[in-house]
Amino acid sequence: MADQGIPDASLDGYVRILAAAAATGRRPTRDELDSRRAVGERAAETGHGLRALVGAHLDATRSHWPATAVSPDSVLAAVAQAVDAFAEGYERAQRLAVRQEEAARREFIDDLLYGRSDLGLLAQRAEHFGLRLSFEHAVAVAQGTVAYDEGDAVLREVERALIGRFGDRSILLTTKDGRLVCVAPGDQDEVLAFFAKQAFAATDGCQVAIGRPQPGAGGVVQSYEEALNALNLAARLDLDAPVLRSADLLVYPVLTRDRQAMADLVRSVLGPMRDARGGAQPLLDTLTAYFDAGCVGAEAARRLSLSVRALTYRLERIHHLTGADPSDPVHRYTLQTAVIGARLLDWPSVAL
Q: What positions does the domain CdaR GGDEF-like occupy (predicted)?
């Protein structure tokens, strides 16, 4: 073994290059340089750092420096070329290893979030990336105005913040379909809450959805899909909260599980509003604002940029057309459910 525990194989052919340069003053041949690159590639697999390997070359240079060199400058030039070729091969192998690791990580993430791999094998692969899929996990997804990828500075910024705060807590941070994705143990909600805060700051105002904790490898997929569904609901219902929790939105999938029944409700309850001057949309917007404001007329009027009197007139018009009074608690539930259905089904833009 060479100095510092460096394998002798990393110096294969190097001393011969020194001797040839000392004897004739010639530079290393192309074949010799290619050989040094190949040795550098193999040396990258030993686990030794490039600095230590270069140091071993310098030690070998001192130990085998020819006493009768034709030209010391020629020997030094040969040393520089040989070491440079070795380092080139080492770095090439490192880049290849990084690309292979990134490809394996990307493949694992795709399989993890889409559930396309054998669950037992997936759990084994997960341990390499710091996840133990036998436990519960929850997934948070951040969606901004632009798409993000693995090399994006935003991802690195959020990653640094998470590691600085929590260290290694079996957290997987990645991107998927242009969104930031964070997978964390299900009993560590503070991790996902912090991720949401950091992602919001790093992206200048993205929206983050957090799925419920779910057990097993399949649970990651389920939590991820819940987060995506929450973002989809937010877009369809104009929910602008910076953080959405799927557990708080479970009523919406329940309401839309029977699409035909919901469409019938929208048509029967809100359909008469089509006869209003200007169509149904202004009155639907009025009901949406009224319910979003907690049925407080003054707040709803402010959101619609109307006077309270104008809002009251619209509500009375809705009562006249539909037979349902928005101020009546019994009627209010039916109207609000129909309004939610209309927003989810894109009525009245889409005929039901």
A: 115-232
Residue 19 contacts by C-beta under 8 Å, 6 or more apart in sequence? Answer: 64, 66
Side chain identity at 317, as an amino acid letter? R
Closest CA to 165 of 145, 195, 139: 195
pTM of this structure: 0.66
Contact 345, 269 (CB under 8 A): no
| Rg (alpha carbons) of the chain, rounded to whole number | 33
**Spans of the chain, pLDDT less than 50:** 1-3
User: Which residue pairs, CB below 8 angstroms and at least 24 apart, start in 101-110?
Assistant: 102/150, 105/129, 105/174, 106/150, 109/172, 109/174, 109/176, 109/181, 110/176
Beta-carbon neighbour count of residue 154 at 10 Å? 21
Cα–Cα distance between 90 and 106 in angstroms, integer? 24
* 40 Cβ contact list (under 8 Å, min separation 6): 10, 53, 85, 86, 87, 88, 89, 90, 91, 92, 93
Residue 170 C-beta-side C-alpha neighbours within 13 Å: 17
Residue ranges of domains in the chain, CATH in brackets: 3-98 (no CATH), 129-248 (3.30.70.270), 253-344 (1.10.10.2840)
Instruction: Report how far residue 3's alpha carbon sits from residue 63's, in angstroms, rounded to the nearest whole number.
Output: 11
At 1 the pLDDT is 40
pLDDT value of residue 7: 67
Q: What is the pLDDT of residue 2?
A: 46
